[in-house]
Amino acid sequence: MAKAEIGVLGGSGLYDMDGLTNVERVTLDTPFGAPSDEYAVGTLEGRRVAFLPRHGRGHRFTPTEVPFRANVFGFKLLGVEWLISVSAVGSLKQEYAPRHIVVPDQFFDRTKFRRDTFFGDGLAAHVSFAEPVSPVLSAVLCDCARAAGATVHKGGTYVNMEGPAFSTKAESNWHRACGFDVIGMTNLTEAKLAREAEIAYATMAMVTDYDCWHEDEEHVNVEMLIATLQANADTAKAIIHEAVKRIPREPDPLCATALATAIITDRTKVPQETLDKLRPIIGKYFG
């Protein structure tokens, strides 16, 4: 199987990765079903990179339907240790304007229908999630975004709503009152699963709109999103090209040992079927 050290999850508007060479299209089957699409695995700036469009080519999956567990498990099977998420978000602050980039360091969960853990079926684990993103990877993304000429906001909270409908005005104003910075529909679920898979994860949140709270701006709609997405996608690709050159060769220690103190189940009580299913993630802790 093709291998990669860096993964890229493309969000709305980013369905391919320009510049990948020696590309191999990899179709994977996981214990959690099929990923969103085939992985494009190749070389970018001298590093092995795997790219996956989160919603599938043609944007076939709603946020709730995205096979998050299969996507992250697939990256693990490919050997990925660093995972860059590119996502379209709405701004909840005046100063975060469309086409700005936010690299959040916190998440808040307002989803209702997500399967956001690999564990269960006789195996319980509780990863530390106080710091939900890799500070190393976040710093790289911020530096590379500035180098690309983008306006970047480091830190902040991404509130993850369920979707697929956009916010009501009441919801949007409530999110602002809570002090949240941007709103999206996908990233928290990925961040949780990446931590369980011991993959360093960070988000490059590309602002497309002001949600619906801003009295002087048009309320968010699909037509508005499409008009902004292409410019954001081009910026994201330029940033990723630079970021893959700067990402360390060694794993992020915060993320690469996330399960070391997380597994609470007696090792002798774990069902063999569960152990076999999760071996790519937990195998090193079971001998």
What does this structure look like?
With 287 residues, the protein is of the alpha/beta class. It has one domain: Rossmann fold (3-Layer(aba) Sandwich). Helices cover 29% and strands 22% of the residues. The protein has seven helices and eleven strands. Strands 1, 2, 3, 4, 5, 6, 7, 8, 9, 10 and 11 form an eleven-stranded mixed β-sheet that branches. A hairpin with a 2-residue loop joins strand 3 and strand 4. The longest helix has 25 residues, at 222-246. It is globular and about 60 Å long. It starts with 5 loop residues before the first strand and ends in a 5-residue tail after the last helix. The model has no long low-confidence stretch (mean pLDDT 94).
CATH superfamily: Nucleoside phosphorylase domain
- Biggest sheet details: 11 strands, mixed
Q: How would you describe the oligomerization state of the chains in this entry?
A: single chain
Our Rg estimate from Cα atoms comes to 18 Å
Helix content: 25-40%
| Dominant shape | globular
How far the N terminus sits from the C terminus, by CA atoms, comes to 23 Å
